[in-house]
Amino acid sequence: xxQVKLLALxxxxxLTNSDKVVTPRTRAAxxxxxxxGVRIVLASGRPTVGVQPLAESLGLAGNGGxxxxxxxGKVIDCTTGETLVQHAFPPDLIESVCTNxxxxxxxxxxxxxxxxxxxxxxxxxxxxxxxINNIPVHGVPDLPAEITYPxxxxxxxxxxxxxxxxxELMQQMYAGRLSIYRSQPFFLEVMPLGVEKAASLNxxxxxxxxxxxxxxxxxxxxxxxxxxQFAGIGVAMGNAVPPVKAAADFITADNDHDGVGLAVExxxxxxxxxx
Length: 275
Prior knowledge:
Blueprint: E1 6-9, H1 24-35, E2 39-43, H2 48-57, E3 66-69, E4 74-77, E5 83-86, H3 94-103, E6 107-111, E7 116-118, H4 124-133, E8 137-139, H5 143-146, E9 154-157, H6 163-173, E10 178-184, E11 187-192, H7 197-208, E12 215-219, H8 225-230, E13 233-236, H9 242-247, E14 250-251, H10 259-269
Parallel strand pairs: 1-2, 1-12, 2-3, 7-8, 12-13, 13-14
Antiparallel strand pairs: 3-4, 4-5, 6-7, 6-9, 9-11, 10-11
């Protein structure tokens, strides 16, 4: 019998294909895993509102599934709606991050209960984030002034050519105060210090009384690297960035060829032999 009791799945580039769809083979494998008592965690950099429709379509409320959103900034129980993990962005750093974003010619955005909030609603990379999450964009003249409620992250978006340099500058400027890493070539995640998927999955495991060896994690991007390294079984997608592949226990097919389905069949259902 499989030792996997908790299955953490990144969404974009991992669980969903290039059309942002969960394919029939992968969906069937997840349903069988859930029937065997495996708890499924949708672990994404997306805001909660951008993950909920997929969680509903997979029926996670009926099998103890969870949503890990904002790269671990928040974890909710899909059955009860209870918030299991919550990390708020430091309010005193919002103005500074937004000011630097303007100076470096990248766009800062965050979220409210309805969608995206930003000073540049027509930016093409903001449009990508809106499309990924299928949520509207609300333009405001002054983003820091608009943030009068707790947020879990700021997202900086911009030209992929510029983002590595912006990432380096941000990491130097906010060392010891914020966690900063890219999730896509054009997305820079700005998070409360120490918040990433692996840390919040560790808290969830502790809450459930499960060892890390019972965790299987699948991902493709830079922000998935810590959970791939942390999990008992770390699975890299065939389309994953090189560091994720290097850290993985298993490299599966890409997200357009049922990579998650194959990994679940191999390590949970036992219907495929590891390559």
